User: Fold this.
Amino acid sequence: MSEHLRPDILGRLRTSRDAEERARAAQQLCSQVTDSEAIERHGEQNPLYVELNTRLVKLLNPASDILDRLAGTAILLALVDVDSLEDKQKFRITQQTKTQLAGSEMAISNEAVAIYKKLIEKRWASVMSSVETEVNRCLEWLGSERNEVRRMTALRVIEVLCSNHLVPLHSYLTKFFATLSNPLRDQRSEIRVAAARTLGACMGLIPMSERNVRNPGLNFLYEELQRNFQMASVEGYHGALLVSQELLQHGGMYMQSHFGQVCDMALKLKEYRDPIVHKAAIALLPVLARYSPQEFTRVNTGSSESMMGRACNYLITLSRTSDRDRAAAFLALGNIAQFCSTEYR
Assistant:
């Protein structure tokens, strides 16, 4: 058995621009290490693991080029799946991952978030003990950081943490909702969309029995929705539509009392001049249909037609007249037909 990592695998790992190829090479390196470990039982003193970690430190150095750092994150991701890791090794991997989360390259950040997600799912003690520290770092980045990569990373990390329903995070809900207000009307649409996904994950922490009109957090979100709408800007309208969708999908019974207002908003913005707002309004129509099929057919829209009638007539016309929106219109129509199948008969 070789006492050194295979240079051909290292070469492919460091030079490939294909993520899948890097992942395969990283898994092969880790397999070489663990095969040796199974035979020699050297634990952390396994010479191949020592070599791998030495190379990993160099690859992840901020001064290294982007391909080397991507190679380093691929190794980290593969190492997380190694069952024979000792606590010291797990701690080292956790610290290396957290360091990469603080970088300023989106490609590295994306990989670091994927590693962090896997660490959380595995409930490693080295990562679970620092969850609140990581949350506070993310809140700080969202509140004062001008680096857009860090802001996006913060949103995605909070989404990962909340999606895993970690008990300590319940006490942060008020802070999460308040902190997400600005990203939800950010100038960049990517930030707004990421903030909405994070918002939905945060709402998942609310017990189902508390998702009603008496919940102060949900009331705060609806008030923010209204404020965004009243801004009468692309950012405000888009943010309002995104929050509406998350409230419909994750707010339980809460949106029953606001259903008509959100229907009116979707109808008003469905032909808005900005394509981002226009597409978000179209996407909201089937979400409304799914939330309450009966109300969707009965909502008073100020005309002789129901909400479903106005929405479907518009979507049918759009599918015939707009090459750009045809696919989205057909998708929305199909979903509305599915959710309101009784009314279509």
Q: What stands out?
A: The longest helix spans residues 19-40. The mean pLDDT is 89. Residues 269 and 324 are 17 Å apart (CA to CA). The chain is about 70% helix and 0% strand.
